[in-house]
Write a structure and sequence with these properties.
The complex is a heterodimer of chains A (256) and B (354). With 256 residues, chain A is of the alpha/beta class. Chain A contains ten helices and ten strands. Chain B has a three-stranded antiparallel sheet with strand order 2-1-3. Classes of the chains: A alpha/beta (256), B mainly alpha (354).
Chain lengths: 256, 354
């Protein structure tokens, strides 16, 4: 029933002598909610950077929707339908919340210099539709009241929400979330978790790096564990929870 | 509230500009019209250039310290295409393109120069781009100086003004004669300010458009722009070309204002004057550079007279020293009271650079 959406083979990346990522094989299927966990420095964010094109791998192959994307630019990968967020939230500080969303949703064609110079009625209509779209997403995420605020005036948690909204409005097939719950208060964290669950139910494939183990165990279909760049465990939350290798990676080896 | 504050700023800025102009009239009781015309011509040309720089820095966050070279490319390409005389012997080239066509090619050349410079350099961030642009501008200037066969080198280019002045309408000549000011400069001044209006009209459209929004996003966070599937490098290159084209136009006007052109016009000081004007007017503000430019030129041109009032017996050299003290002092005062520039938005004060 489920089919391969992302296929990673022999993906390697090192920084100087440090082997940051060394993944032999990882397949992400349609309609899965996968979490990547692991101790600090396990290579989780580097792995995200590699598949979203923000860093280039030393060797290996990443296939997305049947296309080899390991040599593509970040924007080309995003156009294929893979959208990511960042561990340190990146919002457009001196733009309003609404502008943040409009920019994300706007098509490349709509952004073009000549179309903008002509300012055709076609473009105006497109912009109006975008506005509607943005309003819908803002209502869904409960941030409508902040539409006119500059993004830099938002709190840390609100910025996380905005980044999420900006990704959703792009209508991605795959959403890479880098620590969506970091620094967010418990109430908002719950809202964000529910939202992620809902997006997954709607058919968006979600891959999430997260340190909040409780949350991970609660919503994931599948948990992948990284340690020192290697993939050490892969399975359902329950399988992973009692895996001795995972416990060792987190708590350290007694023999040492 | 914000709107009220902004219109207050605008009134204050216009007030300050009028005060500056009145000051010029008071300090130059004989022939103040001639002084004013000269001032407004330079203010218009430099203001236009600052508007171009604002597209780079204010809109896109590109730290361009080679703006003079874009003005230079526009000026040299245009002048060399029209009838002119160049070099030590003053070799006369009588054939050439019509001015308007040459001007278009000049502007496009400046934009292409921006593209060529940007292709390798625009991936660099912040201060690195600044270093590359300032170096490229100097290379351009030295190259033009040494290619004496083509550009006239240190001997420069002359005898090209007629290309513009032959199109001067009668009413401009009549008006200038009536007020006893130079008709040729009046014509250049008029064209400079018409250009500003046209360019501002275009830029206002772009600023409110999806394209302008995309540039602002690039200014804020390039990585996030990439992550949204937008080609940040191409957006930056477009911004670079547009700003360079506007600078090219201002360079041509500068050449026609001088009446003769040589390479020392395009020294880095020109770039820094344009930067000062943009910051004074307000980074990111559309009309800010115009007011910034007028006030800047009032300060530059009238400080020696003010210095003369304080030190009656000083000689020229001493006055020059005092003058630049005053220039620095006045610009400091303005920046202390209006750190975001005359018409800059306070929310956009943060001058972080990508």
């Amino acid at each position: 029933m489920s089919s391969k959406l992302i296929e990673v083979n022999n993906l390697k990346k090192s920084f100087g002598g440090l082997q940051a990522v060394d993944v032999e094989s990882l397949v992400i299927n349609d309609s899965e909610l996968t979490s990547i966990i692991g101790p600090n420095g396990a290579g989780k964010t580097t792995f995200f950077d590699l598949i979203s094109g923000f860093q280039s791998s030393d060797s290996g192959k990443i296939v997305f929707k049947g296309k080899n994307i390991s040599k593509l630019q970040p924007y080309q990968i995003a156009r294929l339908g893979m959208i990511r967020t960042f561990q340190l939230t990146k919002v457009f500080d001196r733009m309003t919340v609404l502008e943040n969303l409009l920019f994300s949703a706007s098509s490349v064609k709509n952004d073009s210099l000549f179309r903008s110079l002509l300012s055709s009625s076609e473009q105006k209509k497109y912009e109006k539709d975008l506005n509607e779209e943005a309003k819908k997403v803002m209502t869904e995420l409960n941030i409508s009241h902040m539409a006119g605020s500059y993004a830099r005036e938002l709190s840390g948690g609100q910025k996380k929400l905005l980044e999420l909204a900006r990704s959703i409005i792009h209508k991605p097939d795959v959403l890479l979330l880098d620590e969506p719950l970091a620094g967010v208060n418990p109430k908002l964290a719950e809202d964000i978790l529910n939202l992620i669950q809902k997006l997954s139910d709607e058919g968006i494939v979600i891959i999430m790096v997260e340190h909040n183990i409780e949350a991970v165990m609660q919503i994931s279909d599948r948990v992948v564990v990284f340690a020192e760049g290697l993939l050490i465990a892969d399975g359902t939350p329950n399988e992973v929870r009692y895996n001795p290798q995972v416990i060792e990676a987190y708590l350290g080896n007694d023999d040492e | 509230m914000n709107r009220l504050l902004r219109s207050k700023n605008l009134i204050l800025t216009i007030g300050l500009t009028i005060f500056g102009i009145v000051l010029v009239v008071i300090l130059n009781p004989d022939g103040y019209l001639r002084v004013l015309l000269n001032l407004l011509t330079f203010a218009g040309i430099y203001g236009l250039s600052a508007i171009g720089l604002n597209v780079h820095f204010g809109w896109t966050g590109l730290l361009n310290f080679g703006h003079a070279s874009f003005m230079g490319v526009g000026a040299y390409v245009t002048l060399l295409l029209i009838p002119h005389a160049a070099g030590r012997e003053g070799d006369i080239t009588t054939t050439g393109l019509p001015l308007f066509l040459a001007l278009i090619i000049g502007i496009i050349s400046a934009a292409i120069f921006g593209l060529l410079l940007g292709l390798p350099a625009i991936r660099l961030r912040g201060d690195y781009l600044a270093i590359v642009t300032i170096a490229a501008a100097e290379i351009f200037r030295l190259l033009v100086r040494d290619l004496e066969n083509i550009t006239g080198g240190v001997y420069g280019i002359i005898s090209y003004s007629q290309n513009l002045q032959q199109h001067r309408p009668g009413f401009v000549t009549n008006l200038a004669t009536k007020f006893d000011i130079a008709p040729s400069q009046t014509w250049v001044c008029l064209i400079a300010w018409i250009s500003i209006v046209l360019v501002l009209f275009l830029l206002k459209r772009l600023n409110n458009s999806p394209w302008g929004r995309a540039l602002r996003a690039v200014r804020e966070d390039e990585d996030a722009v990439r992550a949204m599937g937008k080609n940040a490098v191409w957006l930056k290159l477009q911004s670079f070309m547009l700003g360079a084209g506007i600078a090219g136009l201002s360079g041509v006007l500068l050449a026609f204002n001088y009446g003769s052109l040589e390479t020392t016009v395009f020294i880095p000081l020109l770039t820094f004057y344009v930067w000062a004007i943009m910051i004074l007017g307000g980074v990111g503000s559309l009309v800010g550079p115009i007011f910034g430019s007028i006030i800047f030129w009032v300060i530059i041109s009238e400080t020696d007279r003010i210095a003369y009032i304080f030190f009656e017996n000083a000689n020229g050299q001493q006055l020059a020293g005092v003058r630049f003290l005053l220039v620095g002092f006045l610009i400091m005062i303005l920046m202390i009271f209006r750190p975001s520039g005359l018409l800059g938005k306070k929310e956009e004060l943060l001058l972080d650079v990508k």
